[in-house]
């Protein structure tokens, strides 16, 4: 009963409408999701987005480049948020954003582009979705009075109200793969063209990107088009928008730096191609073939954190705990926001009976993605091994609460929890 009261009380904090100033509209509006909560939701899902896309590309110069282009455009957006930009490893030709100012550019997208103004056009378009509050409006619509408990529970996990997790993964999956309506795309085009132009970029770069996508569509539809529909009417409207701008002023079309960054991605592409081949072999349960491909991948690019993580997983599944753990730890150092290697490192150290190190990495994993039940189970085992029984019991409870009943350790967790509570 008390738990229901707490959930209801927390929910009311979010159900109540708040007045907030909308700089895009230039007036105060009512919203169920104030800006600070929108940012909080987006930030919580950054690690999930990174994990879903095989980690961040492990090169500081590349990440800095994406960050600088993004910030240059963001300075010309009306919503003054702490924008963050990431280049992720996936080969999918796509870019996407999370609520509150977090933008993701895929490695595959940059490889498909020819000039910096094309990249700027896509980033400006994603910033437009954030500035038009499209993600926030989706949350308000889908998680209103009846379902807002799910959103509230995400925040409650990090507050004194308790570690209640409900629908975390479901909401994250929806945010990462939101499909925009034609009206939303029309608004994002209008704003994106404006943001790119005011930042000094040639807005025709977005049209060139559309042409690239249309050519690719004949072979395989780019993932960006799955969530950003591109009818001919939309291309026509963007042309009309651009025609109204002064295109004779100095505008950035391309830079040598874009080509230097793209060359880096091209040089490491064979390594990532081998990684994706290894993933396919693993699906086919051909571990040896997958390992051979990963070894070749890492010979070509030793810092390929996606390959390091997948190889660590295979080695750990073959009881090669020391080698697998070492690879996982290396991957965590290349990307501190990448969930999988943190979990694998924690699991490996548990198997090696190095419980303090296991707890260190598992706690980090828990803070990145807080609804993965196996993390809690192995945290419970590690805390129990160190005699820290209250922490062990808490983690066993959470593991059982989050489990789908098919993890394989449920009966053991129940037995251990009963033993602790009875001691």
């Amino acid at each position: 009963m008390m738990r229901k009261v707490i959930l209801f009380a927390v929910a009311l904090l979010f159900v109540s409408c708040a007045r907030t100033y909308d700089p895009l509209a230039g007036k105060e509006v009512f919203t169920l999701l104030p800006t600070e909560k929108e940012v909080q939701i987006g930030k919580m899902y950054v690690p999930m987005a990174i994990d879903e896309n095989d980690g961040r590309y492990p090169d500081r110069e590349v990440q800095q480049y994406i960050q600088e282009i993004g910030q240059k455009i963001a300075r010309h957006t009306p919503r003054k948020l702490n924008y963050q930009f990431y280049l992720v490893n996936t080969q999918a030709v796509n870019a996407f954003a999370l609520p509150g100012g977090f933008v993701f550019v895929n490695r595959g997208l940059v490889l498909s582009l020819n000039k910096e103004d094309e990249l700027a056009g896509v980033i400006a378009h994603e910033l437009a979705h954030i500035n038009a509050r499209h993600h926030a409006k989706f949350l308000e619509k889908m998680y209103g009075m009846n379902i807002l408990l799910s959103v509230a529970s995400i925040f409650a996990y990090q507050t004194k109200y308790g570690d209640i997790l409900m629908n975390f993964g479901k909401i994250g999956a929806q945010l990462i793969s939101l499909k925009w309506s034609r009206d939303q795309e029309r608004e994002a085009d209008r704003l994106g063209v404006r943001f790119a132009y005011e930042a000094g970029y040639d807005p025709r770069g977005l049209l060139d990107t559309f042409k690239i996508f249309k050519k690719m569509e004949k072979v395989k539809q780019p993932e960006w088009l799955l969530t950003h529909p591109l009818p001919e009417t939309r291309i026509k409207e963007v042309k009309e928008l651009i025609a109204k701008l002064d295109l004779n002023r100095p505008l950035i079309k391309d830079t040598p730096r874009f080509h230097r960054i793209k060359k880096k991605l091209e040089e490491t592409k064979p390594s990532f191609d081998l990684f994706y081949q290894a993933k396919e072999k693993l699906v086919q349960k051909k571990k040896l073939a997958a390992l051979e491909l990963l070894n070749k991948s890492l010979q070509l690019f030793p810092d390929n954190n996606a390959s390091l993580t997948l190889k660590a997983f295979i080695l750990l599944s073959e009881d090669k705990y020391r080698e697998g753990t070492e690879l996982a730890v290396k991957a965590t150092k290349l990307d501190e926001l990448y969930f999988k290697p943190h979990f694998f490192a924690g699991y490996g150290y548990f198997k090696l009976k190095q419980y303090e190190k296991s707890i260190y990495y598992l706690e980090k994993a828990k803070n990145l993605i807080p609804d993965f039940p196996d993390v809690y189970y192995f945290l419970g085992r590690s805390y129990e091994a160190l005699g820290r029984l209250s922490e062990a019991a808490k983690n066993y409870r959470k593991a059982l609460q989050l489990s789908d009943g098919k993890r394989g350790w449920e009966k053991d967790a129940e037995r251990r929890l009963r033993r602790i509570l009875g001691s």
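The longest helix spans residues 256-283. The CA atoms of residues 178 and 294 lie 32 Å apart.
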